[in-house]
Design a protein that fits this description.
Strand content: 5-15%
Number of helices: 9
Distance between the termini: 43 Å
Number of strands: 5
Strand order of the largest sheet: 3-5-4
Radius of gyration: 30 Å
Order of helices and strands: HEEHHHHEHHHEEH
CATH class of the largest domain: Alpha Beta
Largest sheet: 3 strands, antiparallel
Number of domains: 3
Helix content: 40-55%
Structural class: alpha+beta
CATH topology of the largest domain: Chitinase A, domain 3
CATH architecture of the largest domain: Roll
Length: 262
């Protein structure tokens, strides 16, 4: 088990300072220089690991206890050297404590108010609908001025090659690829670009410059295909995470609205 993950689990299961006085009443898994390592610590970490697929057996528990002993020895040495009294470490400990409480609050909230599968499915269908049923393969040449774009269109009308003229594009991501853009749905583009692109026939180029917040575009549509929509099961967890993040933002927003922040 990686040390950082182990320490995170250890911190998450940390006993508040006020509870140390009760340590004698709890079962000790070991004692290190007179300081107890409680069995509840071992139980907590084993439980967290089990949630990630790790077994719960005597060998695993022995390994967890061994790591706890090592951590306790290092902590005691850090305390002996006065490291735990430094201002920076105190700030880190306080922030870590608040982060653990923050995560515990969220876990409790989503346990009481889980986001249902129907909500995840509804969001999937909404996004799929917004994406549309077609994907477009386009090229573009982006310039700073409409006069430059008009000159490019004029050269194209006289037989100029789009791929060659694309070298003067200010879009560094596509200029060296002949202006080629990846397959994408219209929603992935800024609206003026998307509106102009979907009106084109395959192989055709816009007959007038298209302005967006990035500059002036000359667009050619190379191909159209049925949109490749990922299966629901393959994106379910990602959508769930997104909905949870939205719920967290709502929760925090409500708390801020009620709070006095100066």
């Amino acid at each position: 088990m990686k040390l950082r993950l182990f320490l995170a689990l250890l911190l998450a299961g940390a006993i508040p300072a006020g509870a140390l006085a009760q340590a004698k009443e709890q079962t000790r898994a070991a004692t290190v220089n007179g300081k107890p390592i409680l069995k509840s610590r071992v139980d907590f970490i084993v439980k967290q690991q089990a949630g990630q697929g790790s077994p719960d057996n005597a060998q695993v528990r022995e390994a967890v206890l061994d790591r706890l002993i090592n951590v306790e020895l290092v902590v005691q040495e850090a305390e002996r050297r006065g490291l735990t009294k430094t201002a920076d470490l105190q700030v880190q400990l306080d922030l870590a404590r608040k982060q653990v409480i923050f995560q515990a609050f969220l876990q409790e909230h989503f346990k009481a108010h889980p986001i249902k599968d129907e909500a995840v499915r509804t969001e999937y269908e909404r996004v799929k609908s917004e994406r549309g049923d077609k994907e477009y393969k386009a090229r573009h040449i982006l310039v700073d001025k409409d006069t430059e774009a008009k000159e490019i269109i004029e050269k194209l009308n006289k037989g100029g090659k789009f791929e060659e003229l694309a070298k003067q594009s200010i879009d560094v991501g596509s200029k060296d690829k002949g202006g080629e853009l990846d397959w994408a749905v219209p929603a992935n583009y800024t609206k003026p670009f998307a509106d102009a692109m979907v009106r084109l026939e395959k192989g055709k180029t816009t007959d007038a410059p298209v302005q967006s917040q990035f500059g002036w575009h000359v667009i050619r549509l190379d191909d159209v295909r049925t949109a490749q929509v990922p299966a629901f099961d393959s994106v379910k967890q990602r959508i769930l995470g997104m909905l949870q993040e939205q719920e967290i933002q709502r929760l925090v927003g409500d708390l801020r609205a009620k709070a006095k922040v100066e």
